Amino acid sequence: MNHPEMVAPPHARKTGASFFDWFPWEKLTIWGLFLLLVYALREFFTVIFLTFLFSYIMTNVVRRILRILSPGKERLWLHRVCVAVSFVLLLSALTGIVLFLKKPFEEQVDSLKIQFRTFDPKTLFNDVIRSTIGTWQFDRKYLSTPAGRAQLQQDFEEFRQKKSQSTAVKEFDEFKAALEKDFEAWVKGREEKARWEELIQSGQEVAELEKWVRGSKAAEIYQKDKARYDEEWAKEYIKAFGENPGEGLFENGDNPPLKKLEENKEEYERKRSQTILKKITIEELKSSRKNELQEQFKLHLGELAFMELLQSGKTDELFKVFYESPTRPRKAKDPSYTFEKYIAMREARKKSIEEFNRTQMGDLDPAEQEKNIRASFEREEKDRLAKLALEQWKFLEVEKVQKYAEDLVPQVAGYLGQWTIYLFKFTLWFALSLLLSFFITFDLPIIRKGIQSLEQSRVREFYLEIAPGLAAFGALIGRAFQAQGVIALCNTLLTFALIKVLNIRYEVFLCSLVFLCSFIPILGVVLSTVPISLVALQYNGFGTALLSIGGVLIIHFIETSILNPKILGEMMHLHPVLVLGILVVGEHFFKVWGLLLGVPVMVYIIRYVILGEESIFPARVTRAVARIAGAAPAAIKAPVPSDPSRKEAIPVGADETKVG
């Protein structure tokens, strides 16, 4: 059955027809009901989308295998055998990848979580300013002219005589403070994880968490609104027990009348606070803040362990383990002292500046001493010149940038702290989606026949309206994500090679971000490059950070110039400005799913719904859509009549040579 509104072009409407005559009310009702159903299932969208994606990919794999094994006839038993074997191989490959990456990924995320506790955005920002504006101003003042180079030598000699010792002390003090801060975070991170695992093994984690919440968070909440809680408690007590109370309100079951209880003020306060704190604790652990409270409790375990370590007097032994550990965070500007040299300098620093300088320069040859003094001079001079430049440039509000970074760090640290919870949820969704996609692919021939039978059922109109659009949309989304997955894998492998060549830390974690961000057009490059460049800047230096950005740009060029045309072709081609607009709007309304699906949805709307292009779909999809719509495969879109004066609609599938 062909709907007039589906096949008739806009100019075929009768002249003078009112809005209520030509508006497609039936179409609007059907799609409204469908979108309402989608909205009702929004909580399960992740599982639904992953199930669809796995089903689409595995169906294509099985179809290719069956073309080779049984090209002329569809055999249900052979189809099911191919599906079972394909899913076994898929699960084996995924299990191998997870087992191979699990340990380094966990270690790197835990290390990053610890580093974020000591991360100082202001220090990193100052390093960037020194390396950029400071270096530019330094070169401009000293290296651009012969007079400047002469001034450089003069200022350096003055620095050597007057300030080199104090500057060296200042740099060592900064290094020592940062090192001790990192050590504290390392101990807390290691101990909180160990102690939490001990509680889990002993089965005491729930009781200890509840005890901590009651003594800290619940007490804070109670004190903030004490009058209200006390009033509610008194009302509940009288309502429950009156003059002849029973048992149950207090933990010990002792419930005397309220007036009698008030005579003993100390006992009254104890029982009241005891009951209220218990109630608040239960409410907090049942709320959405439970995961956050659990992470805070782990931090408490780490802080408790560190205090015990300080009291035990065994700090130096563990500090040596930390200092010599290959995983210790070594920033680009940190000196490369041995542990013995660092301890000697630390002890000399306690005595005097002269003793410190003798210890620092004692085992260095004159050339190395000269190099260290010059490095200190350049660092201090670049800081000074950068500060003067920023004071002159009023348009650059440094304080606001630093404040924004300081506010952002706790949020990122919170996300990293709860990564195990997110990973657990996603693993459940992933496993459920794999199971559902297996059953769907396993019985796909039977399911297909069942869906096609709807064409002759009482919901025929709904089926004929929805099915063509869903078939086309599903084909576009599935094909786009399948192709983008190959591109994401290529991007990840190239980025991993770049990170290893530049010796940047946290390669597994960073490459995981690259793989996920590769599914986001244009903006994904920025989102994945920022963490790589920040890690390179923090631990390798400004030069390595620039090289990492340049390397990512080259990889992006390879993607856009070679991979996209070869794998995606022109299927997802949209202007970059339109893509960015779609991403901004999609993220605002639909968050992550808006970033992932915004561009494919817009491609479908523009190229299929509006322009009517069927070339973006495989031939089998075009034939299926045409069959559902009751049209020939080559004529899904109604042809435009050769005579503009004709008003009647041309039937779908009509021969264009007979028109007019």
Give a description of the structure.
- This protein has 660 residues and is an all-alpha fold.
- Among the domains are: 119-162 and 364-397, no CATH class; 163-361, no CATH class.
- It is built from 27 helices and no strands.
- The chain has helices at residues 4-7, 19-22, 25-40, 45-69, 76-118, 121-143, 146-162, 164-202, 205-215, 217-224, 226-241, 258-263, 265-286, 290-312, 315-324, 339-351, 353-361, 366-392, 398-417, 419-442, 444-452, 460-502, 507-517, 523-539, 542-568, 576-610, 619-629.
- α8 (164-202) crosses α17.
- The radius of gyration is 34 Å and the shape is globular.
- 19% of the residues are buried.
- Residues 1-14, 243-253 and 631-660 have low confidence and may be disordered.
Low-pLDDT stretches = 1-14, 243-253, 631-660
The major beta sheet can be summarized as: none
Helix count from the secondary structure assignment: 27
Q: How many whole angstroms does the radius of gyration measure?
A: 34 Å
The helix content is over 70%
Order of helices and strands: HHHHHHHHHHHHHHHHHHHHHHHHHHH
**Outline type:** globular
Structural class: mainly alpha
Total beta strand runs? 0
